[in-house]
Amino acid sequence: MPHINLSFAACGFLGVYHLGAASALCKHGRKLLKDVKAFAGASAGSLVASVLLTAPQKIEECTKFTCDFAEEIRRQSFGALTPGYDFMARLRSGVESILPANAHELAHDRLHVSITNTRTGRNCLVCRFPSREHLIQHILAPNSAPIQAATAGGCFGGDSSTLHLLPTLSVLLHQFRLRSSGIRSTAGGSRRPVDEPSVFARDVHWPHLLRE
Questions:
Q1: Is residue 51 left, alpha or beta, with left meaning phi > 0 and alpha meaning psi from -120 to 50?
Q2: Per residue in 167-199, pLDDT tens?
Q3: I need a labelling partner for 54 at 20 to 30 A (CA). Which of 19, 132, 196, 206 fits?
Q4: What domain count does the chain have?
Q5: Residue 154 counted as domain residue
Q6: Which residue from 61, 72, 69, 78 is spatially nearest to 23, judged by alpha carbons?
């Protein structure tokens, strides 16, 4: 089959879902991964894309780190914003332990990271990394809080709309939206609408790509 591109949309703290998709591709989609020419990601999606490209054998290790990291944050009084807790330093330690020494060489011109400049508000894709440190800085930048990035005069966030490198297979999270779906009687006899989650997602049918 012709070469395709694989992109992971921005998802913030829900990046563990992307890791699940990456793990499934490693186990059941090796044929597809061989045909991927470029990997792209925004926010947490850039972290997953970088691991899948440069260290696919460490996806499970990355998942364990993510779950342990989440539990650690939950124990903080104010989560990631707890005074004295260095969220980015902890994230960096995990990234440095997972990415191989030649990660920047493997990612050069194949990994496209979506970042937004805090000063100009302009978004761009970065795909050339002269060093491992340069690569780490660019995949961490989209995952920093805007106020942290602005203070450092750097970049933050990502824009998934820039990841359309056709033909592209995009990994997106299900989108949830509350909708009024009924009427519930309360103890006082009054009646009010019941909000239930409704899932909106585009089904992608590509089982032939996952055959070994």
A1: alpha
A2: 667 776 654 333 333 333 334 444 433 333 322
A3: 206
A4: 1
A5: yes
A6: 61
